[in-house]
Design goal:
Structural class: alpha+beta
Strand order of the largest sheet: 1-2-3-4
Largest sheet: 4 strands, antiparallel
CATH class of one domain: Alpha Beta
Helix content: 25-40%
Length: 206
C-alpha cells in the first residue's frame, strides 16, 4: 500500500503551488534586471550631459574676453546619436573680477512637454576670474613665518625676488661684449690643501 502511494507522483495542487512560487521568483528577477538596465541607461545619459556641460564651461573660461552676464542657450547636434540643449547662466560675485558660470544640459526629444524642457540631466558650476596684477617675476617667501622679505631681497610687498629676476623698474645689468649675453658668475677659488703634520722631536727613527 505504501509503495503504491509513493509511485503515484505529485498532485495537481502541489504542481500549481510550485508554479506560483516559480512565477513570483522569476518576476522578482526580471524586475531587478529591468531596474538595473534603466539605471545603466540613466547613468549613461547623465555622463554624456555632464561632458557637454564641462565642454561648454571650459570654452567659456578659456575665452579671451569675459562672458556677458545673463543667460545664453544653444544646441548640440549629432552627439552620441542624439540632440542636446544647454543653458548657461553667468553671474557676478561680490569679489571683483570673479564670475560664477552655471551650465545645464538636457536631451532634446520629439514632442517634448513644457515640464521636459525644464528637466535638466546635469548642472555644472564653475568660476572665472581676472588677474589682480601682472606677473612681475617675484616669488613668495614660503619659508618665512609671515612672508617677510629678507633684507635687500624684498620689493616692499612681502615677496622675495626669484633668483636671476631683475628688480622691478631697474635697468638690465651690463653684458659681456655688448652681445646681450649676461656675464657669468666668477668661479669660486680652490681651497688650499692642508700641510702635512710635522713629527715631534725625539720620535724620529734611527
Amino acid at each position: 500500500m505504501s509503495a503504491a502511494r509513493r509511485a503515484r507522483g505529485f498532485t495537481l495542487v502541489e504542481v500549481l503551488v510550485a508554479l506560483v512560487i516559480v512565477a513570483f521568483g522569476m518576476g522578482a528577477v526580471l524586475a531587478a534586471l529591468s531596474s538595473s538596465a534603466n539605471n545603466t541607461a540613466a547613468l549613461r545619459e547623465r555622463t554624456l550631459a555632464e561632458w557637454l556641460a564641462l565642454n561648454q564651461l571650459t570654452a567659456t573660461r578659456i575665452a579671451t574676453s569675459a562672458p556677458s552676464e545673463g543667460s545664453t542657450e544653444g544646441d548640440v547636434d549629432s552627439y552620441a546619436n542624439g540632440q542636446w540643449h544647454w543653458q548657461q547662466t553667468v553671474e557676478a560675485l561680490d569679489v571683483p573680477g570673479v564670475q560664477r558660470i552655471t551650465v545645464q544640459v538636457r536631451r532634446v526629444t520629439a514632442n517634448e512637454s513644457a515640464a521636459a524642457r525644464e528637466s535638466w540631466l546635469t548642472t555644472v558650476v564653475g568660476f572665472r576670474g581676472d588677474a589682480l596684477a601682472r606677473p612681475d617675476g617675484n616669488l613668495p617667501n614660503w619659508a618665512g613665518s609671515a612672508f617677510a622679505a629678507a633684507p635687500g631681497q624684498g620689493n616692499g610687498n612681502g615677496r622675495v625676488r626669484s633668483p636671476g629676476a631683475p628688480q622691478p623698474g631697474a635697468e638690465p645689468g651690463p653684458t659681456e661684449g655688448g652681445s646681450g649675453t649676461p656675464t657669468p658668475p666668477a668661479s669660486p677659488l680652490p681651497t688650499p690643501s692642508p700641510a702635512p703634520p710635522t713629527p715631534a722631536p725625539g720620535l724620529s727613527g734611527g
